[in-house]
Amino acid sequence: MREWWVQVGLLAVPLLAAYLHIPPPQLSPALHSWKSSGKFFTYKGLRIFYQDSVGVVGSPEIVVLLHGFPTSSYDWYKIWEGLTLRFHRVIALDFLGFGFSDKPRPHHYSIFEQASIVEALLRHLGLQNRRINLLSHDYGDIVAQELLYRYKQNRSGRLTIKSLCLSNGGIFPETHRPLLLQKLLKDGGVLSPILTRLMNFFVFSRGLLQYINQRKKFRRRWVGALASVTIPIHFIYGPLDPVNPYPEFLELYRKTLPRSTVSILDDHISHYPQLEDPMGFLNAYMGFINSF
Fold first, then answer.
1. 154 CB contacts (<8 Å, ≥6 apart)?
2. Residue 84 has pLDDT above 90, yes or no
3. CA distance linking residue 65 with residue 42, whole number of Å
4. Where are the beta strands (DSSP E) in the chain?
5. Are 103 and 203 in contact (CB under 8 A)?
6. Per-residue pLDDT, 195
7. What pLDDT is recorded for position 25?
8. pTM of the predicted structure, to 2 decimals
9. Do the record's keywords include Signal (predicted)?
10. What is the C-alpha separation between 273 and 280, in angstroms, rounded?
11. Is residue 269 within 8 Å of 276, Cβ to Cβ?
């Protein structure tokens, strides 16, 4: 039996080594089109990808979309056109280390830096003095919380936030259930570099997944910001989410943020509601936006 496992191991090692050196696959036509229609700006020498569409003429409304982990601004493509029918500007970016944005390594990735990149993008677009609607998901929820904290502190040069809509993000560390893969990537160890290459996530184990630890460390700052501001806040929730389980997450959310409104989508909707149920997600968001 032992010899059999040794033979399998000896065969697997060169195969794995060969795979680790295979270049990433080419972009699909849809992703190539998404990249071609977007732009880049430079933040501290790093290229950040973003989309910026002009929608309703004459409307002053602007919405900025903040994507989740481990994806990109492409998460919003199914509701993009619908948003342009309501907002004058629809803007989304790939956070540093994600999507088409640069992925420096080694690099100390942080929620604070990602929030500063959002602020820099809006300065780049000349929108720093405009009132912004934020729509976020997962990792983007935490970035939105940091932006909300800065707005609450009335710091010069920060965003002026008109409204905030969160979705399926682990804003409470105590109810967040990271997947096994996330735990392995976050904590490092022998498997971490292999897993990151196998998934084409070259930098996650060295920084991106540290947002899970940052969320615990800065819980008072970020949850406190949600609880103390007076702007309209909404949460769109896919109840089958294994990362933010029902009903524990929702019970804590309603207890902590009694002023916030909530939209619960159909029972089969999970962690990516904007992709799994784009029409339900869009209708829930429009209902929120049109309520104030």
1. none
2. yes
3. 19
4. 39-43, 46-54, 62-66, 89-93, 131-136, 160-167, 233-237, 261-264
5. yes
6. 45
7. 74
8. 0.86
9. yes
10. 8
11. yes
Asked, for residue 3, whether it belongs to a domain, the answer is: no
Q: What are the phi and psi torsion angles at 159 (to 5°)?
A: -70, 150
Domain that holds residue 49: 40-289
CATH number at residue 216: 3.40.50.1820
Q: What sign has the CA pseudo-torsion 282, 159, 103, 32?
A: positive
How far, in whole angstroms, is CA 178 from its chain's centroid? 15
Phi, psi of 165 (to 5 degrees): -125, 120
Q: Which two tokens stand for residue 280?
A: 């339900």
Cβ–Cβ < 8 Å for 150, 121: no
- Alpha-carbon radius of gyration of the chain: 20
- How many Å separate Cα 72 from the centre of its chain? 7
236: left (phi over 0), alpha (psi -120 to 50) or beta: beta
Mean pLDDT of the chain: 86
Enter the tokens of residue 99: 């999507």
Q: Tell me how far apart the alpha carbons of residues 123 and 247 are, in angstroms, rounded to a whole number.
A: 40
Sheet with 131-136, edge to edge strand ranges = 39-43, 46-54, 89-93, 62-66, 131-136, 160-167, 233-237, 261-264
Q: 228 with 249: CB under 8 angstroms?
A: no
